[in-house]
Structures are given as structure tokens and as C-alpha cells.
Amino acid sequence: MNNTEQYIQQFYKSIEINDPLLLTIELIVDHLELEVMYWPHSSAIAIHGDRYIVFLNDNLSMQRQWQEFGHEMYHYFYDETNYDLLKETYATYGESKADYFAYHFCVPTFMLQEIEGVDVYDVVRLFNVEFNFAYRRLEMYHNKIIERSTIDGTLSKTW
């Protein structure tokens, strides 16, 4: 696993989330003592005093809110950058890192590895994500399996 995958696994294990059914915004914010506010604007994260507030668009589906929550968690864990002040190229780079993190946060590798013969419909159902998000996450997962099997000459049975 790469650093992102390991970090997410350690985080989830530390708060005793080891099953896709436990992956909920409510459980995570309770553990982190974050506040979530639902509003009709773009999703974002802000700090007020010493408390973080995650703003999620209340017009989005629950799946999309979960995906955007995963994106905002990158900013919570890693980011102190104000992208509004940076040139567009750097802002885009930071946001793409947050998107990558969201795929792994919402559909953790260590949980995927436990599901034999996992397909896109399993990911949609178990991890409460949209079809396109699930499809892209499985592409990432399978590409990593192929890359690993090319390096060590084996094919993982998880595929």
C-alpha cells in the first residue's frame, strides 16, 4: 500500500472503523469532534477558532455528500493552504490531491482487499458512492494489482 492508503487504514483502525457499513460522516465527525453544516452552496472546510467546520451541499445525494466529505478530509488532515490566494495551477494541483485522497478515504484499500471478486456494483452498494466514483476507484485498485503482479511476478487473488 502507498502512504495515502496506509494513513487512511491507520486512521480508520484507530477509530475502530473496519467495515464499509461503519463508514459514515456522523461516526467520523464524532471521533474527530468536527462540526458538519449542510447548506445550499459548494462543499468546503473552514476553521473557526480551534474548531473545524465541514460544509456540505444539502442539495447533493448522500453518495455525493460522502464523496465530497472525503475530499474535505484531505484538507483537514493535510492542508493548511489557502488555494484562493494561489495561482490556478497550484490550486488545481492541491484539489487533485484531495480528489485522489477522497477515492481512498471513501473506499479504503484495506476494505476492498477483504472482498473477493469485488465489482463496481459491490462498491456502490457497500461504500455508498456513485457509480462513476466506484468505477474509477476500482480502476485504481486493479491497476495497482496489475502493477504489483508485474513487479513481483504474481497475480493477486483479490482480483
Characterization of this structure:
With 159 residues, the chain is mainly alpha-helical. The protein has one domain. It is 57% helix and 11% strand. The chain has helices spanning 3-14, 25-32, 62-78, 88-106, 109-112, 120-127, 131-152, and strands spanning 35-39, 44-48, 51-57. A three-stranded mixed sheet has the order 1-3-2. The radius of gyration is 16 Å and the shape is globular. The mean pLDDT is 89.
- Number of distinct beta strands: 3
Strand arrangement, largest sheet? 1-3-2
Radius of gyration: 16 Å
Please tell me what the overall shape is.
globular
How much of the residues is beta strand, in percent? Answer: 5-15%
Q: End-to-end distance, in Å? A: 16 Å
Low-confidence stretches: none
Class inferred from helices and paired strands? mainly alpha
- Overall number of structural domains: 1
- Give me the oligomer status: single chain
Question: H/E series, N to C?
Answer: HHEEEHHHHH
What's this, in brief?
The protein is mainly alpha-helical. The protein has seven helices and three strands. It has one domain.
Topology:
Layout: H1 3-14, H2 25-32, E1 35-39, E2 44-48, E3 51-57, H3 62-78, H4 88-106, H5 109-112, H6 120-127, H7 131-152
List the keywords.
single chain, 159 residues, mainly alpha, 3 strands
